[in-house]
Design a protein that fits this description.
504 residues; alpha+beta; 5-stranded antiparallel β-sheet; 3-stranded antiparallel β-sheet; 13 helices; extended; disordered N terminus
Length: 504
């Protein structure tokens, strides 16, 4: 996998002008190449290839069906929102543009111009309509016109219901508007019997009010309803068993799955498949430490039976003591990790002491940019970092080039050694792993219930992506009964009890 490339620049200081970095070049060993080539997958103690793609998520679906499923709902929402928003404006503008010739043909040009005249009260309604449409535009943009960050397998019922209500409302208003204008104009014989322009502006303003109330309904159903926690959800990751528990509101199962993935990518540790095997000591590699010898005069059948009994007894003893060996092996592994961690922190602190930032001081030093400075001080801590990454099985995620880019970025921002090592010492969140930085993450949702149903007590579903699965179990919060208890002020007093055995 190619390292992630970033551009590191050094910003000038407003007080001291251009900044450069002074580096004290450390003496390098002749074995520099050997000391820094271990940050690869070939140094894994488990002898696993870092390019084994079976341990990492596959490529997302990029077919035509996926594209249609991803963007069809968004396009439909945009179209309905734009049509509903432009409807009040069109109802006000169309009569002025002469789209209803029945008015002028039946009443004449002079009477039609008189009907389309807008007085002070009409102009006030137009100003009110303009502000309402501005508020509606901002609200619709905030709720409906956002790019969705998840593609659901089924319809989002509340969102679909709101969009259907907008469609029915717009259709009904346009139907009555056209009938009111055209039919009334055809049946009218005098200007007093027709609908004037003020009534049309009021009608458009009424449609805008209705759309504002629909928008309020959408905010309540889509954005506010699920904010109050009603359940707690337990998330267990397989195969490493990492788990978290969170409070969650009233959501459908498919929306809860999206919520779980948001929590997973931001609050779960990185899954490392190379840590699944416990390091095996040399004493356990020899499966059997018994040797059998054939003695003359001993029956072969009895000899085989005795050998079988001896082997069964040896296996039983090893099985009984396996938990003890596992305990000591895990303890030894934790001790090694702590030891490598301490050495790495010490090496990084010592390496950072040989570098300082130059301003306008005239010193006999070689000015370097951040990337050159990182290349200069990296050899002094490369071996310690190599051993720590090896013992924690992180070398598949960090190449030498990515480490140098990260070190140069830390130097340009004046970060401390521990801030530089945070990326390697802290294994969370999941999105810190460069292998997870993809445009589309495809997960399979498995549930026995209909995905559009709301969460309930004991609801369980599973999210799966290659070898990783998230088992989610939902439990309902109990009803909390808070009672008031009044403490008698007379009982809140104390006396000192003394006896012969008490020393004060």
């Amino acid at each position: 996998m190619a390292p992630f490339q970033t551009a590191v620049t050094l910003t000038p200081d407003n007080r001291d002008g251009q900044e450069v970095i002074e580096v004290q070049i450390l003496p390098q060993d002749d074995n520099w190449g050997e000391n820094t080539t271990a940050i690869t997958g070939n140094t894994s103690e488990q002898s696993q290839s870092t390019e084994d793609v079976s341990n990492w998520p596959g490529e997302p679906d990029t077919g035509l069906s996926f594209v249609c499923q991803r963007y069809m709902g968004t396009v439909l929402t945009y179209v309905l929102s734009i049509v509903a928003f432009l409807s009040p404006l069109a109802m006000v503008v169309l009569p002025k543009l002469g789209f209803f010739p029945a008015l002028s043909s039946r009443l004449g040009l002079a009477d039609t111009t008189k009907l389309l005249a807008c007085g002070a009260e009409c102009k006030g309604q137009l100003v009110s309509l303009a502000f309402k449409m501005a508020i509606l535009a901002v609200g619709a943009w905030a709720v409906f016109l956002r790019k969705p960050h998840a593609t659901l397998p089924r319809f989002f019922l509340f969102r679909a219901a709101v969009l259907a209500f907008v469609l029915v409302c717009s259709f009904a208003y346009w139907l009555f508007y056209i009938v009111q204008v055209t039919e009334t104009a055809r049946a009218a014989t005098t200007p007093e019997e027709t609908v004037d322009y003020k009534a049309l502006v009021a009608y458009a303003s009424s449609l805008t009010d209705t759309l504002l109330f629909v928008h309020y309904l959408a905010v309540v159903l889509v954005e506010i309803r699920h904010l109050q926690p009603m359940y707690y959800i337990k998330i267990v990751r397989s195969p490493d068993g990492a788990s978290r528990a969170f409070g969650i509101g009233q959501l459908s199962i498919q929306r809860a799955a999206v919520w779980v993935l948001e929590k997973y990518y931001t609050e779960f540790p990185i899954y490392n498949p190379y840590l699944e095997r416990i390091p095996v000591s040399k004493s356990r590699k020899n499966s059997s430490s018994f040797k059998f010898y054939e003695v003359d005069g001993v029956n072969n059948t009895s000899l085989q039976q005795s050998q079988s009994r001896a082997m069964l007894a040896a296996h039983a003893r090893r099985r009984d003591s396996s938990h003890n060996e596992r305990f000591y092996e895990e303890h030894e592994y934790e001790r090694r990790v702590k030891k490598r961690r301490a050495r790495l922190i010490t090496a990084a602190e010592e390496a950072f002491t040989h570098i300082k930032r130059l301003h306008n001081d005239q010193v006999p030093a070689i000015p370097m940019d951040p990337h050159e400075a990182a290349q200069a001080i990296f050899p002094s801590m490369a071996r310690a970092l190599q051993k720590y990454l090896r013992v924690t099985r992180q070398q598949p995620r960090h190449s030498v080039e990515s480490i140098l880019v990260h070190l140069a970025n830390c130097l340009s921002n004046d970060l401390t050694p521990k801030a530089f090592l945070e990326q390697y010492l802290v294994s969370e969140p999941v999105l810190q792993n460069e292998k997870e930085l993809k445009e589309v993450q495809t997960w399979a949702l498995i549930c026995e219930e209909l995905l559009t149903r709301p969460l309930g007590d004991n609801t369980s579903f599973q999210l799966r992506q290659n070898d990783i699965s998230l088992l989610c179990t939902v439990k309902k919060f109990p009803h909390f009964n808070i009672t008031e208890e009044v403490v008698d002020p007379k009982s809140n007093k104390f006396v000192l009890r003394l006896n012969s055995e008490t020393s004060v």
